[in-house]
Amino acid sequence: MAGAAPKLRADDRADRTMSGRHDRALRAGLIAVMVPLSLTLAQCGKAPDPAALAANSQANVQVVAKTNSQSSNARVASGDTFEDRFPAPQFKERFPSASESFLQRQMSDFSPKRAVQPQPEQAPYKVASLEPQVPYKRPAREDLTTLVSMKSSAFPYFGNNPASDAPFLNISKGDRRGHRSYSGRVYWQDETYSDSRVLVHVPEHFDLRKPGVIVVFFHGNGATLERDVRDRQMVPKQVTDSGANAILLAPQMAVDAADSSAGKFWQPGGFKRFMAESADHLARLTGDPNSARAFANMPIVIVGYSGGFLPTAWSLEVGGISDRVRGVVLLDAVYGEMDKFASWIESHRSGFFVSAYTRHTARRDRELMSMLRQKGISVAEDMDGPLRPGSVVFVETGEGISHRDYVTRAWTRDPLKDVLVKMAATPSLALTRVASTNP
């Protein structure tokens, strides 16, 4: 027992010695940690010392430089902040400068690309002009007068003559076929009844966007389109000079012959087919294929001179579009078919009818006037007043007026022009378009 106590004290002493060392080490560590922290906390609420910041920054730079001496992208430790690594974009990087602009995108940029057609080489110079620069204006269009072949024109014709219900070509000689007229004269088909051309005239002022009218002119006996209708009777010029928004169609009838045969205009619907085909040609000639519908519905005025009375009468009777006809003008042309004219006048009171005559047709004109008065239709006998819907006018001309010159001199010079002027001055007449270009 006596020996146990000293040993226990020695162990206890050793434990205390080791514990003391451990406590001293722990306190030293705590001091090492707390002293810098206390220095840092002591700076709270006070501006940092510039000298200390500079010294610390320099020290950091040296340390980082040593650490990353082998790196090609060495960065300063104190400069490696969020702003340094992710700098805010500058204004010029987000928006164009005053001399720049955004790239504008059009819908065509997203459409399938088409092959670019090679353009003709431009002249290496530009002609200077003293004229002020003005917006583009469509150049003035000149009168268009041309001959167009149409399948639905009067000839060639291989049907029957409705007056006799016999074939129109009623005579033959070898391979040739012809027509024997009422006078007994023979006209051969290949010389007289084979021209399918139509004289088309579009005045320079014609405007499809405005109400317009189509004038159909049936020439008389012994005529051709160029020599007589265009040059001698000056029908295209009269249409232009009237100022009316009108187009002229003049089909070739029997070529330079004393024959009034109507050809395809004898057939039911023949005039309708002619006007439908004309609409397509007019659309092409005027440069707007979409305008065919407007031409196909445009009001019509039929003018018949001399022997042109026959195709005029049959077009009104069986043509198929008599409702589109807003006016009929006969120039010394009532040689017959009075019942057809009277029937159209009676059933189309919104249109107008004018017949001017010499002594050659005076008897039949007076007969037609009597027929109309019996139907209760008022008749005027001068051209002094305006043309109105329902106007029926008969004008007798004096002895000094010749039948041959009647298209250019009747009750006045250029009678067709006079009718169109009066018609254009009355908006309620034929200048009201039936349908527009738009579908």
Written overview of the protein:
The protein has 439 residues and is α/β, with parallel strands linked by helices. The protein is built from 13 helices and 13 strands. Helix content is 34%, strand content 14%. Strands 1-7-9-8-10-11-12-13 form an 8-stranded mixed sheet, sandwiched between helices. A 3-stranded antiparallel sheet has the order 4-5-6. Strand 10 (300-305), helix 10 and strand 11 (325-331) form a beta-alpha-beta unit. Helix 10 packs across helix 11 and helix 11 (338-347) runs parallel beside helix 12. It is globular, with a radius of gyration of 52 Å. Mean pLDDT is 79; it is low at 1-14, 35-78, 91-107, 123-139 and 432-439.
Q: How would you concisely characterize the structure shown here?
A:
This protein is an alpha/beta fold. It is 34% helix and 14% strand. Strands 1-7-9-8-10-11-12-13 form an 8-stranded mixed sheet, sandwiched between helices.
Shape: globular
Q: What percentage of amino acids are in beta strands?
A: 5-15%
SSE order, one letter for each helix or strand: HHHHEEEEEEHEEHHEHHEHEHEHEH
- Helicity, as a percent range: 25-40%
Q: What profile does the largest beta sheet have? A: 8 strands, mixed
- Counted beta strands: 13
Task: Calculate the mean pLDDT score and round it.
Answer: 79
What is the alpha-carbon Rg in Å? 52 Å
Oligomeric nature of the chains:
single chain
Distance between the termini: 132 Å
> Which strand order do you get reading across the main beta sheet?
1-7-9-8-10-11-12-13
Class derived from helix and strand content: alpha/beta
Give the number of helices.
13
Question: Spans with pLDDT under 50 lasting ≥5 residues?
Answer: 1-14, 35-78, 91-107, 123-139, 432-439
